[in-house]
Design brief:
The chain has helices spanning 14-17, 41-48, 74-83, 87-102, 112-115, 182-193, 216-224; strands spanning 29-32, 38-40, 70-72, 118-119, 147-154, 173-177, 201-205, 208-209, 234-240. The chain is α+β, with helices and mostly antiparallel strands and 245 residues long. Among the domains are: 10-83, Zinc/RING finger domain, C3HC4 (zinc finger) (Herpes Virus-1), CATH 3.30.40.10; 147-157 and 165-240, Phosphatidylinositol 3-kinase Catalytic Subunit, Chain A, domain 1 (Ubiquitin-like (UB roll)). It holds the Pfam family zf-C3HC4_2.
Length: 245
């Protein structure tokens, strides 16, 4: 006799795909590496502005910077989008609407791409992450993603070989996907500056070294935006990695 399986409903999985903090579906699910509890990225980032402890189990995540212990769970995100029809489209639309409402007012279209933090698909700004027209391993640089304008400034510090070996980019202002990571920015810089593959760079925001898995969106929301005097574009600085040992 064939077994008759019960048809599962989305609500049967709610315990696994909802956020402990907001009680909604997990949006950009982000896991605390110390205890493996997962929350919406915006929820857990906001929580860590006030506390260094996991909101679910209470463990201290990090003594000074719990944001370093967060990792995006892209696999879980895809599972949730497949389980909940229309959720992806709804969130993408809400994200576009949010940035439309929160962009600074402009007095014209000149220098548009350097004034607006995020640009929705089709916005009237220049090219992608590689503005000089060279190709790259990511191909279209996620042009359908929300876009962010950044400025890459060189810090002329003493590097690994005892002398300054990094220089300014010919074009410091670029536009790329807000989901690009610091690791990708480092690869971009190494390519443009023709650095050897063994050469290590640090990327900083407001004087703080950024982790290689941090996305530009994450840095903008948690580092750049919190300083009220900061303007657009977001400025990231790079320098040779300094060995303190």
């Amino acid at each position: 006799m064939a077994a008759t399986g019960r048809r599962h409903l989305v609500k049967d999985f709610n315990h696994f795909i909802t956020c402990y903090l907001c009680r909604g579906y997990l949006i950009k699910p982000t896991t605390v590496t110390e205890c493996l509890h997962t929350f919406c990225k915006s929820c857990i980032v906001q929580h860590f502005e006030e506390s260094n402890d996991c909101p679910k189990c209470g463990i201290q995540v990090h003594e000074t910077n719990p944001l370093e212990m967060l990792r995006l769970d892209n696999t879980l995100e895809e599972i949730i989008f497949k389980l909940v029809p229309g959720l992806r489209e709804k969130e993408e639309q809400e994200e576009v609407e949010f940035w439309k409402k929160n962009q600074p007012r402009e007095n014209g279209q000149e220098n548009l791409k350097y004034q607006r933090p995020w640009l929705p698909e089709g916005a009237a700004a220049g090219g992608g992450a590689d503005d000089d027209g060279d190709g790259g391993e990511d191909g279209d640089y996620h042009r359908s993603d929300p876009q962010i304008a950044i400025c890459l400034d060189c810090l002329h510090n003493t590097g690994q070989s005892g002398e300054s070996t990094v220089t300014d980019l010919m074009k410091r202002f670029i536009r790329c996907s807000s989901r690009v990571t610091v690791g990708t920015i480092k690869k971009f810089l190494s390519l443009k500056l023709k650095l050897p593959s063994s050469y290590e760079l640090d990327v900083l925001c407001n004087g703080e070294i950024m982790g290689r898995d941090h996305t530009l969106e994450f840095i903008y929301m948690t580092r750049w935006r919190l300083h009220g005097e900061n303007t657009y574009p977001m400025v990231l600085e790079y320098r040779p990695r300094i060995d303190f040992g």
